[in-house]
Amino acid sequence: MQSNHSETHSKxxxxxxxxxALKILATAPAKNRLTRLLPFLGPAFIASVAYVxxxxxxxxxxAGAQFGYMLIWVIxxxxxxxxxxxxLSAKLGLVTGKNLAEHCREQFPRPVVLVMWGLMELVAIAxxxxxxxxxxLGFNLLLGVPLLVGALLTGVxxxxxxxxxxxxxxxxxxxxxxxxxxxxxxxxxxxxLDKPDWGxxxxxxxxxxxxxxxxxxxxxxILGATVMPHAIFLHSALMQGRIVVKEKSQxxxxxxxxxxxxxxxxxxxxxxxxxxxxxxxxxxxxxxxTHIATIEEAxxxxxxxxxAGAKWFFGLSLLFAGLSSxxxxxxxxxxxxxxxxxxxxxxxVRRLITMVPAILVIWIGLDxxxxxxxxxxxxxxxxxxxxxxxxxxxxNKTIMGEMVNKPVTTALAGLIAFIIVTLNVYLLxxxxx
Length: 433
Known about the structure:
The chain has 433 residues and is mostly helical.
């Protein structure tokens, strides 16, 4: 009875959010812009979790420890790319009422659809591997439990968070947004504690540079960990039925609010990623500990360098990142399967299936951090198969109507797709040679 009451209450919070949004879209702009923005915040925060997952910890810590502040510009460029790509994804779901996977199923031949589905499922497995390992490491570092126990705790916690979906979209958005906020707070404290060289930070932000093939591989890993394929598919699905309007003026207003949602959420994600790299550069690279290549080493080394509080903030941020991104990854997997194949499996079954690779990695004894970095490289290979169709669909007037991309938007998105494909070809060459 209590469950039914809470479910009804949560559904009513969804209705209130939708009603508030529709009222705002139908009225003239008011002075209090923040209050007007609140009903529209949420979807981008869920998508942004993919940009602060444990794979980011692994690549950013390695990049900062080995190359100092050098690759901060890669984080900045990657997040600017992510903002544009996520904006197009949100617009596709908003305007058409269909997500990216559904458009792929309708527009492409069946064999192409099946191949794309297979590739995206591999990407989902690589994503889940990173997220599960990260959360398991978080439990391991904070509670001292074995990694295998940490993985099982992650599975249980993820299912509990996913259970919020039955109460509507607002409770899940609130919990995930809260976790993103906690990750950002932890790294704000870390950044204050590690006292970085802000002059070097600024220089590395605006001056692109590399230092050999390993730095390029890490840059590709950062890109793969930032512009995430499954988040592109998920964001279009989050928007397709959240707030539905038909009038052109209201649709454009809703789109503008969603852009603000994306800028805020991705801005926080960009800060967190930069703070990870800055922390590693200001502590490990600065003190000559360039060999720090694992999350466990980073955790243990932070205490003597920055004090006891630093490693706990680091461990908490890793745990929140793992749990939230694992939850979002499972939802994305459901969207991908349902969109491409017009079918789905129970969330419990999907959760159990995607747990298997992470548990095998722990069981075999592979290095978790190296596995995390390689999983991000796999993600960067999956990116073209999400970005290219997205650009094709959003530039198509038949699909998008009056909300079709402007030529400059299509050109920028096409350039991003070209950069991603070029980086992947280079990565493949490096791996083979």
